Amino acid sequence: MRVALDAAAAEHAVFPLRPRSKKPAIVEWEASATTDPDQIRQWWLQGPQNVGIACGPSGLLVVDLDTPHYSHAVEADEPQGGREMLAALAAAAGEAFPDHTYTVATPTGGQHLYFAAPPELELRCTVGRLGRWIDTRGAGGYVVAAGSVRPEGRYRLHRDALIAPLPQWIIEALTPHPAVESTGLRLPPERAAAYVAAVVRGEADAVARAVTGQRHHTLLRAAGALGRLVGGQELDYAAAENTLRHAVEGHLGRDGFTPDEADTTIRAGLAWGIQRPRHITDTHHRPAQD
Q: DNA primase/polymerase bifunctional N-terminal domain location, by residue (predicted)?
């Protein structure tokens, strides 16, 4: 093979990509992907190729962290790319940044984090489901292996580590939600509205009363809780955001807590919660007739 395929990639089902490209060199690439050294050798005897790894047959879920293109406007207080967005989402979930796994640096400044997909669940490719600048490659998708070359540069090994299991919080965020939930709290519209209002007041009060050292975590947790209500269409996004901004006002400028940090935390927490919708209102409830 003209492109060096490192040991971690070589354990998985591979297929040829066109030279200096991300496009498959064969039509049925997913069905043809293999670990058979004889077949791989035959492919690469035809000339230099890049290396594609079929994620589904390889049991992989790869998190693709992009960097903003110059043509994409990014506000100063927004995450400045996929890595920062994933860090914010991990913090919102109360988890560490998941960089403890095999990682490839892409030619355009991004990263591919390789994880072992859960065997009991088929996770397919997503675009932006986890957050802006974050895609995933799973069943039905592929990634370009380290050592491959494009006009922009080379895919390089960034962290030579064992491929870690996909973190549970990412599994939950990527798992499709059922169209109809069979369990959970269900209240008539009037009672549901009162319940949601009480949740909003409680979270806002917790943020306002948070002490130094707990403010960031408290705001993340509150934003996540309200984001779940937004995702379940129980609460308007603007109302949730405005409530949190008002609640955190008393902390701004104290002990280094900046408006930018507050805004980023709120947006990350809301994004995390929206991916985990919480439904309160019984949509089948009919008001009593007069």
A: 4-170
The 10 Å Cβ neighbour count of residue 5 is: 19
Q: How far apart are CA 209 and CA 87, in angstroms?
A: 25
| Model pLDDT for residues 154-165, shown as the tens digit of each residue | 999 999 999 999
The pLDDT tens digits of the residues spanning 245-257 come to 999 999 998 877 7
Between vectors from CA 252 to CA 248 and to CA 254, what angle results, nearest 5°? 125
Of all residues in the chain, what percent are helix, strand and coil, respectively (each to 5)? 35, 20, 45
Whole-angstrom distance, CA of residue 127 vs CA of residue 134: 7
Instruction: Work out the number of other CB atoms within 10 angstroms of the CB of residue 250.
Output: 13
The β-bridge relationship of strands 153-154 and 149-150 is: antiparallel
- List the structure tokens of 17: 């990509």
Enumerate the CATH 3.30.2250 domain ranges in the chain, comma separated.
7-174
pTM over 0.90: no
CATH for 7-174, among 3.30.450, 3.40.1360, 3.30.420, 3.30.2250?
Answer: 3.30.2250
